[in-house]
Write a structure and sequence with these properties.
binds glycine, 388 residues, globular
């Protein structure tokens, strides 16, 4: 990672953001400690203030932030707070039933990174446990990792054959487990899943479906319904960002060039859409023009994906991806950032899903928006830890 060669006004902006980050995160860490935040209310995070409590898929992002800040500064307080969250997540490994495919999001930025940094054997055990749970969700007939739990939703819908684009960010846990144990089964599963995602999620123009439904008995394709975006056939921007970053990571971990090309295809689609919206990500790139709804988190994740891609290509493409990432980050920083050290969270403007009658999940600060913003800034400063 690193060596992005940031220059001129971009460098001035980057250095300024980094200084603000150091001040803000030191205060935020003092306030939040080993609580597990999601979105602030009146400028304050609440512990486990998310649906699903301890099992919620975003619970790795605060320890991820803390590890990134620890990596950049060496301050012990960050590491201690991250370790505290990781210990709290033990309960989920014992409880099991609330865990689903998002164990990668939960345990890569907590246990895997702790083990990498400190060689803590408990962290290794937690991460291998989580990797085995993820591998256990593989459907060998359909060759995909199943997304959510409960075979039937409340309305009777059978979801035992559903996979989603987001899972590309969970499978690095499997690549890690294979390297750690010397057992290639985990990688076989990850690669099979990523190939299925290439085939059934990514469309020819680089746009993506969110969900694929398979018949879980026969493995046959059934449908691509709408998901968290506008609807069937649309293009949910956070899903697009998971595709850019996720396929780039599968390339990093396997060297399979088809993953690199798919990541580029999805990246080019995102860049062309962002270039016509002042580099501010809409919630869905194929929603009606009105109402305008943004999702800053999609921008942050896309930026990290582009910076990951920049590390795997020649100089000209590297410059393209790096410049696009910086444009997104600067646009979102100017519109959405809150740098007040006495208020929790930085990046406002995150949207969980398109159709949100309550409005409570629309254009609000969300913990993973901050995580990916911080990862991107630290990547550009050559101070990021690699968590995925
Ligand atoms: N992984 C769930 C989401 O991106 O909303």
């Amino acid at each position: 990672m690193g060596n992005y060669n940031v220059k001129g006004t971009d460098l001035e902006w980057l250095d300024g953001v980094y200084e603000k980050l150091l001040v803000k995160m030191e205060r935020e860490c003092e306030r939040v400690g080993s609580d597990i935040p999601y979105t602030p209310h009146n400028g304050r995070y609440q512990d486990l203030g998310m649906p699903g409590g301890l099992y919620f898929w975003t619970n790795g992002f605060w320890p991820g932030i803390l590890w990134q800040m620890y990596g950049a500064t060496g301050r012990t307080a960050y590491r201690k707070a991250a370790e505290g969250v990781e210990e709290r997540l033990d309960e989920t490994l014992h409880g099991f039933e609330g865990l689903h495919h998002d164990v990668g999001f939960m345990f890569l930025p907590s246990s895997v990174i702790n083990y990498r940094e400190t060689k803590n054997p408990d962290s290794r055990r937690r991460a291998l446990h989580a990797a085995n749970l993820l591998a256990g969700r593989f459907n060998p007939v359909g060759k995909y990792i199943r997304a959510w739990n409960e075979s039937f939703q409340n309305d009777g819908t059978d979801i035992s054959g559903w996979m989603i684009i987001d899972c590309l960010m969970n499978i690095p846990l499997l690549y890690w487990a294979s390297r750690e144990t010397g057992d290639p089964r985990f990688t076989h599963i990850a690669v099979s899943h990523a190939k299925t995602a290439q085939r059934y999620i990514v469309r020819e123009d680089g746009s993506c479906n969110h969900i694929v439904i398979f018949d879980s008995l026969t493995g046959e394709f059934v449908d691509n319904p709408g998901g968290q975006g506008y609807g069937r056939g649309s293009s949910w921007s956070r899903g697009q960002s998971w595709a850019v970053y996720g396929f780039a990571l599968s390339y990093r971990h396997t060297g399979d060039e088809s993953f690199l090309n798919t990541a580029k295809q999805c990246a080019h689609y995102c860049i062309s859409n962002l270039a016509v919206s002042d580099w501010l990500p809409l919630v869905d790139y194929r929603a009606p023009e009105e109402p305008v709804k943004y999702d800053s988190t999609a921008g942050m994740i896309t930026a990290c994906g582009l910076l990951e891609l920049a590390g795997h290509v020649g100089e000209q493409e590297k410059s393209l991806y790096t410049k696009a990432a910086i444009r997104i980050l600067r646009a979102c920083d100017a519109k959405f950032s809150n740098w007040d050290p006495e208020m929790d969270s930085i990046v406002d403007g995150g949207t969980f899903f398109y159709h949100d009658p309550s409005g409570e999940n629309t254009e609000v600060p969300i913990i993973y928006g901050d995580y990916y913003f911080i990862e991107a800034i630290l990547r550009l400063k050559d101070k990021a830890l690699f968590l995925w």
